[in-house]
């Protein structure tokens, strides 16, 4: 008698773990999966396979714990933001001191975020936008630059699709460099990914107009002066090169500093930096706090470096 | 029922808008359908307000049931 085996053993294991250990998170996971179960399973299984390769068999449980903690951090920060009307931190120095300098906390933070890529329903939408709109625009041998790769999942996913592409990633956090390297190795693209510890805002010293594609995911809201970062992206892209930028709007997090309120603010910053906005997606969580004044959103922008035109 | 549990029960009734709700120390998210991650934060803020305490995210993320919440409140008040 033939035995039946599941096609998504790691995803099944993740759901079983969350149901047992973090039942309050299960509704959100089901919302993410329910949008397109087949595609969700493909993406999730891929990400989880890299996770297990990088962290071992206990990696799923540890990352799920980190995800639950991170989600609580975010929800609590959002609730306090609703009450206070402003993000808790105003300067990068405050955030660096309280969060980024703590290697152990950063480890959990990064793996928690790694899972939010597909376990938060609205971030899953951003992922499919990245796959459908950004990856498909680049040639197979593209040179990619990733600014603040964090866990590395975005760029590694792009490399896994574009077999001849190469990527350089720059992040201020040593823990990020370590994790991004481990994810790249786990995905079998380590030979095409190089991660360097460097402040994103110093990238104007990196070769101008050298990248076919640039990925910068959820960094702009962590800066006091994000406009400068858009200029860096423009500096790095070849004329006609495309960028994938994401940012958070009225979405509190312990390390969010710059409070975007309108989607047009990100668009304007792109335009001011010489980038043409080709497409956008603004996505929000399926549930918000009762009587919320602020709708937390995540926005993705597909941009292109202008060639000659001023406008 | 302890005084803390009685007061927690009132908070639960307010947050989940259910006057019939009766929580026990072992009551968990499995017993209350609406007790998801977002409602948990609402609950935490309501408990903070009711007992005049402040929790960290780490303290509240891993709470398994009402008993653990009750113990945390009493620890903060001690």
Describe this structure in words.
Chain A has a single domain (1-311), classed as Vaccinia Virus protein VP39 (Rossmann fold, 3-Layer(aba) Sandwich), CATH 3.40.50. Helices cover 48% and strands 17% of the residues of chain A. Chain A contains eleven helices and seven strands. In chain A, helix 9 links the parallel strand 2 and strand 3. In chain A, helix 4 (59-84) packs across helix 6, helix 6 packs across helix 7 and helix 6 packs across helix 9 (174-186). The relative contact order of chain A is 0.12. Chain B is mainly alpha-helical. Chain B has one domain (3-77): Non-ribosomal Peptide Synthetase Peptidyl Carrier Protein, Chain A, CATH 1.10.1200.10. Helices cover 58% and strands 0% of the residues of chain B. Chain B has four helices and no strands. In chain B, helix 1 (3-15) packs across helix 2 (37-51). The two termini of chain B are 19 Å apart. The relative contact order of chain B is 0.19. Classes of the chains: A alpha/beta (311), B mainly alpha (78). The A-B interface holds A 23-28, 68-69, 71-73, 75-79, 83, 254, 287-290 and B 28-30, 35-42, 44-45, 57-58, 60-62.
């Amino acid at each position: 008698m033939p035995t039946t085996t599941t096609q998504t053993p790691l995803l099944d294991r993740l759901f079983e773990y969350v149901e047992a250990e973090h039942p309050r998170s299960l509704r959100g996971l089901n919302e993410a999966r329910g949008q397109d179960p087949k595609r969700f399973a493909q993406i999730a299984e891929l990400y989880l396979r890299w996770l297990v390769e990088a962290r071992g068999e206990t990696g799923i449980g540890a990352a799920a714990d980190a995800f639950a903690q991170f989600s609580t951090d975010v929800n609590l920060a959002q609730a306090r933001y609703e009450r206070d009307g402003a993000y808790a931190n105003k300067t990068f120095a405050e955030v660096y001191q309280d969060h980024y300098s703590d290697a152990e906390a950063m480890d959990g933070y990064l793996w928690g975020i790694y899972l939010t890529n597909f376990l938060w329903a609205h971030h899953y939408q951003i992922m499919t936008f990245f796959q459908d709109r950004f990856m498909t625009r680049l040639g197979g041998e593209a040179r990619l630059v990733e600014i603040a790769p964090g866990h590395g999942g975005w760029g590694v996913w792009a490399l896994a699709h574009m077999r001849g592409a190469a990527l350089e990633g720059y992040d201020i956090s040593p823990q990020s460099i370590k994790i991004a390297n481990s994810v790249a190795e786990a995905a079998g693209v380590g030979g095409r990914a190089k991660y360097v510890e460097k402040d994103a805002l110093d990238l104007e010293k990196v070769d101008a107009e050298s990248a076919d594609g640039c990925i910068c995911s959820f960094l702009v809201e962590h800066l006091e002066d994000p406009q400068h970062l858009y200029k860096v992206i423009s500096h790095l892209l070849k004329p006609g090169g495309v960028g994938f930028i994401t940012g958070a709007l009225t979405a509190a997090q312990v390390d969010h500093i710059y409070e975007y309120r309108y989607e047009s603010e990100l668009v304007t910053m792109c335009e001011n930096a010489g980038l043409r906005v080709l497409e956008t997606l603004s996505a929000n969580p399926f549930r918000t706090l009762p009587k919320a004044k602020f709708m937390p959103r995540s926005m993705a922008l597909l941009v292109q470096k202008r060639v000659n035109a001023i406008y | 029922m302890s005084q803390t549990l009685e007061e927690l029960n009132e908070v639960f009734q307010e947050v989940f808008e259910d006057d019939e709700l009766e929580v026990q120390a072992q009551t968990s998210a499995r017993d209350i359908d609406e007790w998801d991650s977002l409602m948990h934060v609402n609950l935490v803020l309501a408990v903070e307000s009711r007992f005049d305490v402040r929790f960290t995210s780490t303290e509240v993320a891993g709470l398994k049931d009402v008993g653990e919440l009750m113990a945390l409140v009493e620890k903060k008040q001690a």
